[in-house]
Specification:
about 375 residues; alpha/beta; Rossmann fold; globular
Length: about 375
């Protein structure tokens, strides 16, 4: 039986690997690795994994080379990260050792950032030279739209394979499509999906790139809710796994209708009447579960990173003066309505898990 290494570092990437694990483990001897927030996702899904930080306290080209030579893997499948280089080192070293390697994308944003040798140069160009990238042999992506933008940024067309998004596929199968309707005189529950903009870029760089951070959007949203005539709204913040939840203490203290929740994403969505955020995957998950959503990207400086904006399925709020009006409309709607302007009809390419599995199987079976 051939041996396959699976690795992720971020929670979104870990969800991809978790979705692929069952089918791959039927065909291959799997070693599951992770680090940082990915470890929590594996644990939540009852998958035993090895912490790469503990195995290799110093992760560099030399230690990764020794590691791969020792374990004699036939293939490597990873997610992608922004500033962390573990995945890039795995691809780079695997190619030197003639080991098949591939990566899966989880989102329609920050394409080049995941592959650049110098992530700090991200957003300084619209297109990068091939020499500026560290690329795997194959990149599995969500759809043709993602592929088109990646090619436009300088990633070679022949490396990109459109397969669909495996986590979305498994997410829909596992989730029960339920709408939590609020009765008269009950609280209206909105979920705020945070993103680690400040963690990844820092406050100043985040503001310079996007025009906002997760904290500026949350604060503006709370101020707008505070002005609404409807006083039945409670806003629950779903921190990103990479967030330091202490940063939300002040805003929870300042606005009595705000609280933090740490339950899993599916339960958080299902118990909410609507989901607010910026461009988080959690907004896409909410759309897949037929929940009303609202993307808020005030003072946006770049083209919207939210895929539903890009494919004209939604339109983010980018001006603060419009935010209160939209939130008021959202508060007034019937939570069980399926024809709301805030409800997006969203489907994904089918058979993503099978598509990726068959591609890997073909390449490993005919490996030279």
């Amino acid at each position: 039986m051939k041996k396959l290494l699976l690795f992720s570092r971020d929670p979104g990437g870990a969800n991809l690997i978790v979705s692929m694990y069952p089918i791959l483990s039927q065909e291959y001897d799997i070693d599951l690795y992770g680090k940082d927030t990915a470890l929590h996702v594996y644990e939540k899904n009852n998958l035993a994994c090895k912490n790469m930080n503990q195995l290799l306290p110093s992760i560099n080209s030399k230690t990764i080379t020794e590691f791969l030579i020792h374990h004699k893997y036939d293939g490597i499948l990873t997610s992608t990260s922004a500033e962390d280089f573990t995945e890039r080192l795995l691809w780079q070293t695997a190619q030197k050792l003639n080991i098949f390697n591939a990566a899966i994308l989880d989102q329609w944003m920050n394409y080049s950032l995941r592959f650049l040798k110098s992530p700090e140069s991200y957003q300084t160009k619209k297109k990068y030279n091939l020499s500026e990238y560290i690329l795997p042999q194959k990149i599995f992506v969500m759809d043709e739209y993602a592929k088109k933008l990646m090619v436009k940024e300088g990633i070679p067309d022949q490396l990109i394979r459109v397969t669909g998004q495996p986590y979305f596929e498994s997410f829909i199968k596992k989730s029960i499509k339920t709408v939590t309707a609020s009765k008269d005189n009950e609280k209206i529950t909105w979920l705020f999906a945070s993103e680690p903009i400040t963690t990844v870029y820092g406050k100043e760089k985040g503001l310079n790139i996007y025009g906002y951070t997760e904290q500026s959007i949350l604060y503006a949203t709370c101020k707008a809710i505070n002005k609404l005539q409807c006083k039945r709204i409670q806003l629950q913040i779903k921190p990103h796994p990479r967030d330091d939840i202490k940063v939300y203490t002040d805003i929870c203290n300042q606005f009595p209708f705000v609280s933090l929740i740490t339950i899993n994403s599916v339960d958080a969505i299902l118990q909410s009447d609507a989901v607010l955020g910026m461009s988080s995957t959690l907004l896409l998950e909410a759309a897949l579960l037929d929940k009303p959503i609202l993307s808020i990207q005030l003072n946006l400086k770049i083209n919207s990173p939210f895929i539903l904006d890009q494919i004209n399925k939604s339109k983010s709020i980018i001006k603060e003066e419009k935010l209160e009006k939209e939130l008021n409309l959202l508060a007034e709607q019937n939570p069980s309505a399926t024809d709301s302007k805030f409800t997006v009809s969203l489907t994904t390419q089918k058979s993503a898990i099978s598509n990726i599995f068959l591609d890997i199987k073909k390449r490993l079976n005919f490996k030279i």
